[in-house]
Specification:
Length: about 475
């Protein structure tokens, strides 16, 4: 199109327009160092009812995988052990130093060759168990990267005989099988002083560059599981100012990524989007969304321990899953793969039992919310948890009264249409109901057949 403006005025107009467009683009670029941006991002945190947290609230059941150089040792070093926790066997910082860094790099890294690692098999086992997302250690406190990073050669591709990018293979397989991939990243790094490339002016630059690599090369990332700065001096802090800065940095890269409470103060704080209690169930429904992470052994070991015999019982873990769902949270079960890159056979056996239960009763877990309208007398022989979705209320019975007794549930709702087993193979359930003070009083007899872990009943009400 031909302009009627003089050439000089037209040039000025074009320059002004381009300048304005560049300025607009810069203004739209999130500046995570800006205090106003940090405050705005921080104020928007949480995942109780926001759209970006919907997948997380629906998932209910996840997998944690602790895999790294420590897996090569299985908790033992030079004939001594098991060291507890096994994944922290290198032991720098405030803990006793077990393995000098040079030996850890040369001897342990030089031996690490998990030739039986198979991302497809791992993800398939997780999926069959009913776990909807995977949290995996991309870098633990020892500072060793299980992904191919340009920040240091202290990584699985450049420093081990295995020479494969474990995290890339796992992230790709998660995407193929429809499992949400979530990287774990330790903010504390025991090896950074020795392995950090000199091009980085500070550990903070090094850390942020690694986080950028994860988001750019292993996405999409819907959630990142940060761990605290424990045992490391002058690297990072967990005060509010640092928490807001790191939260804003990640938010600027990926606004919809959920970030756990360990971006800051961790347990007991309101930092990040949700809270992460370890190996303990919350006592009641929480105002803040929570995710209980639990080791598959009855101790504080998250990495593999050779010859461990203290694995948790599948029935207890199913009950924990139900308990978390009934209180408005998620349950995450950890596994420490072996030095050869396989899930321990004991863990596989646990997953098989849980998977059989979730394949039948999943509708009462996934996508549900707590059902506080259901009340069961505490301390009695009848133990029952409750969840609900848009259509039904579910009762999860883990302990029944004697054959001549009945379980009683008072429900602040009327219009009960029917009660049936979610597992139709268990047959029918006998019950009676009445309305008292605007509540449905439901009396349920112990069925002739029950689930050995938790019998789930589906209650239907009129609209």
């Amino acid at each position: 199109m031909k302009s009627n403006l003089p050439r000089s005025k037209f040039a000025v107009l074009v320059f002004a327009t381009l300048t304005a467009l560049v300025g607009l683009a810069q203004a739209q670029e999130p500046n995570w160092t800006n205090a106003a941006y940090q405050d705005a991002a921080w104020e928007g945190r949480g995942c109780t009812n926001d759209a970006r947290g919907q997948w997380f609230r629906d998932a209910k059941f996840g997998a944690f995988i602790h895999f790294g150089l420590y897996s090569e040792l299985g908790g033992y070093w030079q004939g001594k052990g098991p060291y507890d926790p096994s994944e922290q066997i290198m032991g720098l910082g405030q803990r006793e130093q077990v393995i000098p860094w040079e030996q850890y790099q040369k001897e342990v890294g030089g031996a690490f060759n998990p030739t039986n690692f198979n991302a497809k098999e791992w993800v398939s086992l997780v999926k069959k168990a009913g776990q909807k997302y995977i949290i995996v250690t991309t870098k633990h406190h020892d500072g060793f990267a299980m992904f191919h990073t340009a920040t240091t050669r202290f990584n699985v591709v450049d420093s081990t005989p295995f020479a494969r990018d474990v995290i890339k293979e796992l992230a790709d397989e998660c995407q193929r099988q429809g499992i949400v991939f979530c990287p774990y990243y330790s903010l504390g790094d025991w090896s950074a002083a020795d392995v950090m490339d000199r091009k980085f002016a500070s550990y903070q630059d090094y850390m942020r560059t690694q986080l950028q690599e994860l988001f750019q090369n292993y996405g999409p990332i819907k959630m990142i599981w940060l761990d605290n700065y424990w045992y490391v001096k002058d690297q990072w802090q967990n005060d509010l100012a640092h928490a807001k800065e790191l939260y804003a940095f990640i938010h600027s890269i990926s606004p919809n990524t959920l970030i756990d409470d360990r971006v800051g103060g961790g347990a007991g704080s309101t930092d990040g989007d949700y809270t992460t209690p370890e190996n303990q169930l919350e006592g009641a429904r929480q105002s803040r969304y929570f995710e209980v992470v639990m080791s598959d052994t009855v101790d504080d070991n998250w990495g593999w321990v050779k010859n461990a015999t203290n694995y948790r019982k599948p029935g207890d873990l199913i009950c924990n899953l139900i308990d978390c769902a009934s209180k408005g949270g998620n349950f995450v079960l950890n596994v420490g793969p072996t030095a050869s890159g396989e899930f321990p056979k004991e863990h596989v056996a646990i997953l098989e039992v849980i998977g059989k239960w979730t394949s039948i009763n999943g509708e009462a877990i996934y996508g549900t919310t707590p059902a506080p309208e259901c009340e069961v007398e505490a301390g009695g022989p009848f133990v029952c948890y409750s969840t609900k979705n848009a259509r039904n209320v579910f009762l999860h019975v883990t302990n029944w009264p004697k054959e001549d007794g009945a379980g009683v549930v008072r429900i602040a709702r009327i219009g009960l249409v029917g009660v049936e087993m979610v597992d139709g193979a268990l047959g029918k359930v006998e019950y009676g109901s009445a309305v008292e003070d605007g509540k449905t009083v439901l009396k349920i007899k112990k069925p002739a057949q029950i689930d050995p872990y938790a019998t789930v009943l589906r209650l239907t009400f009129r609209e």
